[in-house]
């Protein structure tokens, strides 16, 4: 919005010329999202407490988690608000990639909201069924895929997938791309959801992933830099870096209230929304496969659940004390803050390795 209002004035006032630069507007989105989160956070916590929107804890969860019962949940609504408003404020509104990122984030957040609402209403940690979540996620992902294949002229998006570490390993998936998109978005949203089990863990890892993809989207949208680094060029996708900036700022702001001991929990409306956002940004940047590295911590958490369930069904034995992985270390005696910080370090390492693929080709 600000771009359309102020940049035309650059002919008269040179200062407004800064609005042409994605980097300036991305920084503005970071600060705006951060300020919105910090200013509205206390009011939102009071509102959630007044509405008795408290977290329910599973009986099988580690004993120390029982003390968290009743902590205001559905804080993800604050995150989504702090992402969407700055994005629409600082990004170009004539860019369909921006609207796709916002739409998918809001869509997955809505699925999470329905899940959270059922949990609060039933006063039990059981919301939407797994089948319902997958069906809704698949429909949303298919809709996003169709929209990508139907972009207006000047915003071509090929159904291709690039392999990291290889210069010319680009494969055209054709009609298979949309099912592939379903896997990416559902997998990303589910992985973030599984990681959201300790105070600040998921939002901190999301902050790191969003900052990393801000770099990838900026590069993918710059023809000169993309050609030099031999990564797929997607005209117009650089604007999504502003959306990523808003994700970074909103994550920092929410972490202020979600750090241990948490005053507010994001709930599924936050974890599913953020997972969908990261997955969609990976798709738009043409770095879908690299999401396995950028979100390496999320992948480890999801894999630990898959391994645990598979092992128990096939052998009747558990590999971990408890899954997801962070619960294993809790039962091993690690304190919650230690697990969180060490997992953040892992997330940073994964992000740095993923960025190294820009040169290791």
Oligomer: single chain
Q: Determine the fraction of residues in helical runs and give it as a percent range.
A: 55-70%
User: Mind summarizing the main beta sheet?
Assistant: 2 strands, antiparallel
Radius of gyration: 20 Å
Give a structural overview:
Helix content is 64%, strand content 2%. It is mainly α and 361 residues long. It has a two-stranded antiparallel sheet with strand order 1-2. The two termini are 38 Å apart.
Question: Which characteristics define this entry?
Answer:
globular, 361 residues, mainly alpha, 14 helices, 2 strands, two-stranded antiparallel ribbon
Outline:
The chain has 361 residues and is an all-alpha fold. It contains 14 helices and two strands, in the order αααααββααααααααα.
Helix and strand topology:
Layout (H helix, E strand, L loop, with lengths): L1 H5 L15 H29 L25 H15 L5 H27 L7 H20 L10 E3 L7 E3 L4 H19 L5 H20 L2 H7 L10 H19 L8 H18 L6 H4 L1 H20 L9 H7 L4 H21 L5
Antiparallel strand pairs: 1-2
């Amino acid at each position: 919005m600000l771009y359309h209002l102020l940049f035309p004035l650059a002919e008269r006032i040179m200062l407004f010329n800064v609005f042409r630069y994605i980097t300036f507007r991305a920084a503005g989105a970071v600060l705006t999202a951060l300020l919105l989160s910090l200013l509205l956070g206390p009011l939102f916590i009071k509102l959630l407490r007044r509405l008795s929107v408290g977290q329910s804890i599973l009986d099988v969860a580690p004993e120390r988690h029982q003390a968290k019962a009743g902590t205001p949940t559905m804080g993800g609504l604050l995150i989504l608000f702090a992402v969407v408003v700055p994005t629409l404020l600082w990004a170009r509104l004539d860019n369909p990639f921006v609207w796709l990122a916002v739409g998918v984030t809001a869509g997955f957040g809505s699925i999470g909201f329905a899940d959270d609402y059922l949990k609060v209403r039933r006063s039990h940690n059981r919301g939407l069924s797994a089948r319902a979540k997958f069906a809704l996620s698949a429909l949303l992902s298919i809709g996003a895929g169709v929209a990508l294949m139907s972009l207006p002229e000047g915003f071509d998006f090929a159904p291709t997938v690039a392999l990291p570490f290889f210069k010319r390993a680009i494969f055209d998936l054709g009609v298979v791309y949309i099912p592939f998109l379903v896997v990416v978005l559902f997998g990303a949203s589910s992985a973030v959801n599984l990681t959201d089990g300790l105070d600040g863990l998921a939002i901190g890892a999301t902050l790191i992933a969003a900052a990393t993809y801000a770099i990838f989207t900026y590069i993918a949208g710059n023809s000169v830099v993309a050609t030099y680094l031999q990564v797929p060029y997607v005209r117009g996708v650089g604007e999504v870096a502003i959306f990523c900036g808003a994700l970074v700022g909103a994550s920092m702001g929410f972490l202020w209230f979600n750090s241990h001991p948490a005053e507010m929990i994001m709930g599924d409306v936050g974890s599913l929304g953020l997972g969908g956002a990261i997955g969609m940004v990976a798709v738009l940047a043409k770095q879908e496969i690299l999401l396995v590295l950028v979100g390496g911590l999320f992948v480890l958490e999801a894999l630990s659940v898959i391994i645990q369930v598979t092992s128990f069904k096939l052998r009747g034995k558990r590999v971990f004390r408890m899954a997801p992985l962070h619960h294993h270390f809790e039962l091993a005696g690690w304190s919650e803050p230690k697990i969180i910080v060490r997992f953040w370090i892992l997330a940073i390492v994964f992000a740095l390795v993923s960025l190294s693929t820009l040169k290791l080709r």
